[in-house]
Amino acid sequence: MKYITKLLxxxxxxxxxxxxxxxxxxxxxxxxxxxxxxxxYVDQVDEDKLVEGAIINMLTQLDPHSVYSxxxxxxxxxxxxxxxxxxxxxxxxxxxxxxxxxxxVSNGPSEKVGILAGDRIVAVNDTAIAGVKMSxxxxxxxLRGPKDSKVNLSIVRRGVVDPxxxxxxxxxxxxxxxxxxxxxxxxxGYIRVNRFGATTAExxxxxxxxxxxxxxxxxxxxxxxxxxxxxxxxxxMANEFLGPKELIVYTEGxxxxxxxxxxxxxxxxxxxRVVVLVDEYSASASEIVSGAIQDWDxxxxxxxxxxxxxxxxxxxxLPDGSMIRLTVARYYTPAGRSIQKPYNSxxxxxxxxxxxxxxxxxxxxxxxxxxxxxxxxxxxxxxDSIHFPDSLICKTKQLGRTVYGGGGIMPDNFVPIDTxxxxxxxxxxxxxxxxxxxxxxxxxxxxxxxxxxxxxxERYNANFEVGExxxxxxxxxxxxxxxxxxxxxxxxxxxxxxxxxxxxIARDLWDMTEYFQVINTTNESVVRxxxxxxxEEYGQILK
Length: 543
Description:
- By secondary structure, this protein is α+β, with helices and mostly antiparallel strands.
- Helices cover 39% and strands 20% of the residues.
- It folds into four domains: 2-70, no CATH class; 84-174, Pdz3 Domain (Roll); 178-414, 2-enoyl-CoA Hydratase, Chain A, domain 1 (Alpha-Beta Complex); 424-510.
- Helix 13 runs antiparallel to helix 15.
- 35% of the residues are buried.
């Protein structure tokens, strides 16, 4: 028997060796190991899981952005960028295990059957989703489904005794890239972009056109918190500001030849003043746009140093619908700055080899804690805490101003985080959803009255004030959530809490543009941008 087993084992190895003899020694070694484990290991093994684990472990040795995604993750990852998904079409919040409809999507399937803002969805196809501790992801999976499929929704509506049942035919629901677009002061427009997706360029061009018709001469482009997306969307946006044949970005890698992307010079906003807002969460495509505008001296960058994600991933589709996103090159700004921050042990943003990956182990933990480390170094509070060596100096293309490489885009005008307003009490209010619950309850109770009194947002914005009744409700809900009252911290937090309450009510009554019109009054970077545009600072920076 032993002899037969040896012959079988030998035959298996000979067969395997014959099929992979043309491969490299390392790949032959890997394939033989996997084949041997799958066919000869003493117990049954899950081959798919084994291979997935090997792929994931290999990728962790490379860089923080080379990743493996299974088929379901690929689908979820693509939805926000593709620009649509299939579902019932509502904006909602989960409050106390209940789905509250903030707004039905305009002309979407829910609005067509009569679902209203303020409705509570308590059951989907006879399955209760309210008060059952069901995860948001599970609820979403029940609401979404193929186009033209039908779903029965049980709705509880204020003033109606019994639940109402609606049959909704699912449809394609758009996902918008722009959060807000409005005239923030005479002749100055404001556009906030939350991601770079398939529809971003089209949305952005339309917003530019609409604002120009309203008299816009200057623009505040808000990319705070924008984690990036499609390269083409970033190139199309940068094209709106730059002249013909001006370099927007280039990519280069060990086995990837230099690829350059230029502006066509047919953009709609090549002459007006531009202020771009960025922060530590602005990444990838956001850094391409802000880096190009800065390097060509086309506008002023305001805020804090950006994230520093400048690695190019090539998607490699696998047979089962899963995907590897493999880093093949790096992004460089027109002045030659590498956007990528360091990811090797011992490197910092001030290192000449920052992000080069030439040597040193990949330190994922250190990379993931970079923003915390920036805060601990004082970088979020003072620009003087950021140090770049002379080896990282670059010059802008038109005016020869000094800019630095080594990770992220350093703004022309630094705006620190105001830590004086953020207290433990406010953090608990936000973490336990107290501010959100307060506004949801208030709007549910007063929606009709508010819309009668404030038929237009402009009237609401000018006249509505957060009164003691609303603050009393907030304190009551905070008490219910076992948040210990601290008068000193509460008083300090009011400067944040009041605008947040007013902005959330505006969002529930209107939309995100109205939300940002309220909340931007407390955004230090927005306030700073207006100061720069309303003084001689803009010209002083770009000289």
